[in-house]
Design brief:
Layout lengths: L8 H11 L8 H8 L9 E5 L5 H10 L3 E6 L2 H13 L6 E5 L12 E7 L8 H11 E14 L7 H10 L8 H11 L2 E7 L1 H15 L4 H8 L1 H19 L3 E9 L2
Length: 258
């Protein structure tokens, strides 16, 4: 699905009202911590793939004490905001953020102990190619830990799912959990596990829709304008429908490079 919208200032403002400063996907610090549950990152080298405006990376840097944390994103505007947020949080000396091009990651083999990603891989169509890149940049015993949005099955998308994707306009490479399992195992990962979070995200999205068209409308409309907000309300209505039908799903992934 072709990307027709960027994470521009209006969209970032709306999402951060819903999800917290620095967060362009739901769940904030709590969901980030859940993705990383049980991992000891002290002294480790961490890559945040699809870092957005830096919320996850800054939380990880402040709470998990990695030796090095690099966030990357293909959109220059959100990388600039991530750098600004790092300075504001006093974490600029412990984090770095880079704008990269789609394709192979610009890092040598085996240079990270953890690759983290929060709801970004959904925008990458080639799951198998990405899994091979993740495997390449991880050191032996390195961990891939991520959350992502997925299609509920490998069936052709319904008109309702296509409608949601077109309204959203952010570009999707939706694939089922089966495709993710195949890609990660095919790349050489072991101990591949998946925690389904669809029910949680479906319920949260419904609350967000009520907030967008209710208690938060005056504040958000003042920042982004009525027309933009009206469009986003329609996006959330379509989103809630495809979560309810389970055509869209979400969950957490964990895999180990042997």
């Amino acid at each position: 699905m072709e990307q027709t919208q960027d994470y521009d200032d209006r969209l970032v403002a709306l999402l951060e009202v819903l999800w917290g400063d620095g967060y362009l996907s739901p769940g904030g610090d709590h969901e980030t911590a859940l993705v990383l549950d049980g991992l000891d990152l002290r002294g480790k080298r961490v890559l945040d793939l699809g870092c957005g405006t830096g919320g996850c990376a800054l939380f990880i840097a402040s709470q998990f004490e990695p030796e090095e944390l690099i966030g990357v994103d293909i959109e220059a505007g959100v990388v600039v905001k991530a750098i600004e947020n790092a300075y504001a949080a006093g974490l600029a000396d412990r984090t770095s953020f880079l704008q990269i091009d789609p394709g192979p990651l610009p890092f040598p083999d085996g240079c990270f102990d953890l690759v983290f990603s929060k709801d970004s891989i959904v925008h990458i169509g080639d799951k198998h190619g990405l899994a091979r890149e993740l495997f390449r940049v991880l050191a032996p015993a390195g961990v891939f830990a991520a959350s992502d949005w997925m299609s509920g099955s490998d069936a052709p998308p319904s008109p309702e799912l296509l409608h949601y994707q077109e309204l959203e306009g952010l570009g999707f490479g939706l694939a089922s959990p089966d495709v993710y399992f195949s890609a990660l195992r095919g790349a050489g990962f072991e101990q591949v596990s998946y925690l389904d979070r669809t029910a949680w995200l479906a319920a949260r999205s419904q609350v967000e829709l009520e907030d967008l068209d209710g208690r938060l409308r005056p504040a958000i409309e003042a920042r982004v304008g009525r027309e933009f907000l009206d469009h986003e309300v329609e996006v959330w209505k379509a989103l809630c429908h495809v979560f309810d039908t389970r055509e869209l799903g979400a969950g957490h992934w964990r895999a180990i490079k042997p």
